[in-house]
Design goal:
The complex is a heterodimer of chains A (97) and B (199). Chain A has 97 residues and is an alpha+beta fold. Chain A contains 5 helices and 3 strands. A 3-stranded antiparallel β-sheet of chain A has the order 1-3-2. The two termini of chain A are 14 Å apart. The longest helix of chain B has 26 residues. Chain B is elongated and about 75 Å long. Classes of the chains: A alpha+beta (97), B mainly alpha (199).
Chain lengths: 97, 199
């Protein structure tokens, strides 16, 4: 195990959460259904991994009603953006070693 | 994590980022469009002999129809032909893009109305600068999902369109040729740049 391996953010370094973060880094925000369908995730996956991202404050949530239907939107936070940026930088360091 | 795993991880992240965009420009189609644009002045030169010296443009109705059809086709090649349909994700997954698509429809309608009005009032020389500006606006909106060069070129279209509008009053018959050549070269440049950025 190297020092760099220890530095990989364990919140992001999980296949499903990496995908969610990669998607949100580009779109900035996305609603629950779109995110779930775009990444091919189950409700269970969404619930588990979004909880972890929300707890780490990498993502924030906004709940509102649209045409009388509840709509949950996830927004990437500044902390999330920095975390993802650092994660990519770490991956690049590993590649260039 | 070893080197190979890190490369795979980066590739998987890139794939997700690419899939979150729904409209990107096709590098091949941009290059083909660029070549078509470079040929237009030549085609115009050759086809001027096809009417056997009869100036059909003196008929105002035919003149208006030709201008509307020509500039709409030009615009179609400029923008719609260069777009690539995303095969990975359903449309409208990117909220920023959804907003851009809303503006896109307004631009198309405004541009088409402008072409018809300018052709009817006999200000055909202003249509080309208008199309230039509209294409610039659209590339500006969608270019931000592609790469920086596309955005820079889109601004050059808007600025040159405005300049073209001013200098078109000078009555030069060859001015449009320079602009068409610029359009052709920049399309090829955008195509090559996108091709390189995708590796």
């Amino acid at each position: 195990m190297t020092d760099i391996e220890l530095k990989l953010d364990e919140v992001i370094h999980q296949p499903v959460r990496t995908k969610i973060m990669a998607y949100l880094i580009n779109t900035k925000e996305c609603d629950y259904t779109t995110l779930k369908n775009a990444l091919g995730l189950s409700d269970g996956h969404m619930s588990t991994h979004m909880k972890r991202l929300l707890m780490s404050e990498y993502v924030s949530v906004e709940k509102k009603f649209e045409k009388n239907k509840p709509k949950t939107t996830y927004i990437i936070t500044a902390k999330g953006k920095n975390g993802f940026k650092k994660y990519i930088e770490t991956l690049k360091i590993i590649i260039n070693q | 994590m070893d080197k190979e795993e890190a490369i795979k991880q980066i590739e998987s992240i890139n794939a997700v980022i690419d899939s979150s965009n729904t409209i990107l420009f096709s590098e091949k189609r941009l290059i083909i469009s660029g070549i078509i644009f470079l040929f237009i002045p030549l085609i115009e030169y050759i086809t001027s002999y096809l009417t056997f010296g009869i100036n059909i443009l003196s008929n105002p109705v035919i003149n208006i129809i030709i201008q509307v059809v020509f500039f709409y086709l030009l615009f179609f090649i400029c923008f719609h032909f260069s777009k690539m349909k995303n095969k990975i994700v359903k449309p409208s997954t990117n909220p920023i893009l959804v907003k851009a698509l809303g503006i896109h429809d307004t631009i198309i309608i405004t541009m088409f109305a402008s072409i018809i009005v300018l052709a009817i009032i006999g200000r055909g020389e202003l249509i080309f600068p208008f199309v230039y500006i509209f294409v610039g606006l659209l590339f500006n909106f969608f270019g931000r999902f592609t790469n920086k060069l596309v955005t820079i070129i889109s601004w050059s279209y808007i600025i040159l369109g405005l300049i073209f509008m001013v200098v078109s009053g000078l009555g030069s018959n060859y001015l449009w040729i320079y602009f068409m050549i610029y359009l052709g070269i920049t399309y090829i440049l955008m195509g090559v740049s996108i091709k390189n950025s995708r590796g």
